[in-house]
Task: structure prediction
Amino acid sequence: MPALRVLLPLLSLQLLTFAQQYIPAWFENLPSAPAGYTLAVGYSGKFNSNLRARNYALNTAFTIMAKQLNIRLLFELEELNDGRLRLLNPTFKQFYEETILNNVKADYGVIDSSITAEGYFILIAYPRLERLNLPDNRDKNWGPRPSWVSGQLPEEKGFVYGLGQVARYRSWVRAWHDADEHARFDIGKNLNIKAESTTTSQRDNRKTIESTVIKQSYDLLLKNVTVVARWFDPATATYYALARAPRQ
Result:
């Protein structure tokens, strides 16, 4: 559905004040979790104290984990095209359970954390897991451009992927938040979307004008929706997120 693809990089474009350079390896590519456990990352910008930065990043990780475990996504798009004018009216809504969020806060473990010039990063596990051998936990530059950034999403049996992207944000924290959200909604589109089209005609003194209304929607409850990879393109100041979920 091309109309939906246009909408995924939505929200207002903002001016970029700096480029995010160094990140922990597990922020770019989420490690595999042991059976029965789930991993999630949290992040924050710079604060006056490392404790405040850590608390913000940790609360972000809690929310990401809760959304990852169980989330309801509602999407509606109504597009009007009459040959001269194209209007889009999108609606994105998501719901996650407060009970799940509280369960995560009560039984989590910090696997690793990192402070860079741009902010604070933290990797948590749920349920509590105190130690995990990470293949590479050093801070690093962004790796080469992944193929999924260009829309070549992985093809993995039993899973579906979604791509999110935003560009030229003033805050990299907000940019990653929105890129993650768009990736989740893209999964919903790739799983199950309903579409219907209605065409009407109206004639004036000289010609007939056709108007087409296209409606797309879905209402899905998803489990284990994980943002498994991120990538930043400094040349275009674009943030990309790749999410994965079990195919229903």
